[in-house]
Amino acid sequence: MLIFVINPGSTSTKIAAFQNEQVLWKEVIDHPDQDICSFAKIADQYRYRMEAIITVLKEKAYQLEQFHAIVGRGGLLKPMPGGTYLVDEYLVNESHNAPGGEHASNLGAVIAYHLAQSVNIPSYIVDPVAVDEMEPVARLSGHPELPRISLSHALNMKAVARKVARDLGKSYEDMNFLIAHLGGGISVTPHRRGQMIDVNNANHEGPFSPERCGTLPSAQLIKLCYAGKYTEKEMLTKVLKEGGLYAYLRTKDAREAEKRMTEGDAQARLVLEAMCYQVAKEIGAMSTVLAGQVDRIVLTGGLAHSQFITEEITRRVSFIAPVTLVPGEEEMEALALGALRVLKKEETAKIYRV
Ligand SMILES: Nc1ncnc2c1ncn2[C@@H]1O[C@H](COP(=O)(O)OP(=O)(O)OP(=O)(O)O)[C@@H](O)[C@H]1O
Ligand SMILES: CCCC(=O)O
Q1: 244 CB under 6 A from ligand 1?
Q2: Contact, 69 vs 115, CB < 8 A?
Q3: C-alpha dist (Å) from residue 77 to 81, 100, 319
Q4: Mean pLDDT computed over 287-297
Q5: Tens-place pLDDT, residues 239-281
Q6: Given a cut of 90, is residue 11 above it in pLDDT?
Q7: How many whole angstroms from its chain centre is CA 248?
Q8: Residue 7: predicted pLDDT
Q9: What are 180-193's pLDDT values in tens digits?
Q10: Residue 131 reports pLDDT greater than 80
Q11: Distance CA 260, CA 269 (A)
């Protein structure tokens, strides 16, 4: 089976061709700031990104007709269980209208669907950002007007969970994991026998990350919002794009922060230690969701490449369960494998309706 994979990110679109489980090629199409900033909404980038993808396909001498399916990263749809979903017009319209908010991944389904329609093959999304498998007790925030929302790096976390389980000779559905995706944003999730039963919303809650604030003191936040200093858009940028590491150190790059730390910058050390402290604290909190029945803690995402960061977290949480490192992310493989499970009839594609 030949599968075409499309993963739109905030500054790039990653594409790849897979022959069954094997990657044939991967390409990162970078989108310069001045291009991206010229669009008012993510949905407006559709034609721009589509044309860039078609250009690369032509350069690689691939025809859409050669593929058996196209799979895109799924975005901020309404809450939905994990799995592989067939993309249809309903799902495309929802992705276009972005009910859960603006995110580049909203374009994954739209682009995959239109490319696939043009050559009459199916298109899918897999474990989108909006995967919601939270238990009822996890949904209460403390105020009924502000229910907790599940937004996370579900795609990579579920792929990593399957891989770690496989390496242990088990299936994902047999295991209890605590998985922390440590990227530009951070998700910490208890996975109970294949279900992500809670998660810090990676945009709104939990540890601060290279670019996001995570949980903030709520009354202080309200006062700042009403202080007349910032517009709503500025506040959202502060919390989602210019928070965390960036707010303290003016860099989102943990490698740069670590370099400064090793050169003696005490503030860089404090901020990195605080980020690890918050991640460890969240892992500790989530271990109670599994009542301490944890087979493995898994650290994944870009920050899991760092020895300093993984050791700082591990020394605080290894009393809970052994810690496994899976640095980086495997989103392209996860998308291809999700589509493949359906094409091989190991799984039935779900239909998204809410
Ligand atoms: N070898 C490394 N050592 C330390 N930090 C690293 C290393 N490689 C990447 N990072 C850091 O990881 C962070 C980005 O992680 P990642 O690439 O997983 O994020 P992303 O894909 O941009 O965002 P997200 O994972 O939230 O979708 C950055 O702060 C980057 O500096
Ligand atoms: C909101 C979680 C997903 C991401 O940060 O890309």
Answers
A1: no
A2: no
A3: 11, 5, 37
A4: 98
A5: 999 999 999 999 999 999 999 999 999 999 999 999 999 999 9
A6: no
A7: 23
A8: 97
A9: 999 999 999 999 99
A10: yes
A11: 8
Class of the CATH domain delimited by 2-133+331-343: alpha beta
Residue matched to tokens 């506040």: 235
Cβ 306 under 6 angstroms from ligand 1: yes
Q: At 36, is the pLDDT very low, low, confident or very high (cuts 50, 70, 90)?
A: confident
151 Cβ closer than 6 Å to some ligand 2 atom: yes
Of all protein residues, whose CA lies closest to atom 6 belonging to ligand 2? 153
What CA–CA distance (Å, rounded) separates 29 from 22?
21
The C-alpha atoms of residue 109 and residue 112 are separated, in whole angstroms, by 5
DSSP symbol at 16: E
Domain ranges of the chain: 2-133+331-343, 154-327
Residues 6+ apart with CB under 8 A from 34: none
Q: What is the pTM of this model?
A: 0.94
Q: Where are the alpha helices (DSSP H) in 226-330?
A: 232-240, 244-249, 254-262, 266-289, 307-317
Does residue 103's CB lie within 6 angstroms of at least one atom of ligand 1? no
> Which residue is associated with the tokens 């210019």?
242
What are the beta bridge partners of residue 296?
177
36, with CB counted inside 10 A (0-12, 13-18, 19+), is middle
Q: Tens of pLDDT along 17-28?
A: 999 999 999 999
Say if residues 79 and 129 touch (Cβ distance below 8 Å): no
- Cα torsion 267, 304, 10, 34: sign: positive
ipTM of the complex: 0.97
The C-alpha atoms of residue 96 and residue 90 are separated, in whole angstroms, by 10
Distances (CA, A) of 353 to 37, 143, 231, 284, 287: 32, 27, 35, 35, 32
Give the residue carrying structure tokens 């238990």. 135
Give the fold, CATH level 3, of 154-327.
Nucleotidyltransferase; domain 5 (3.30.420)
Tokens standing for 286? 């989530």
179 CA distance to ligand 1 middle (Å): 16
Amino acid letter, residue 187: S
How many Cβ atoms from other residues are within 10 Å of residue 32's Cβ?
8
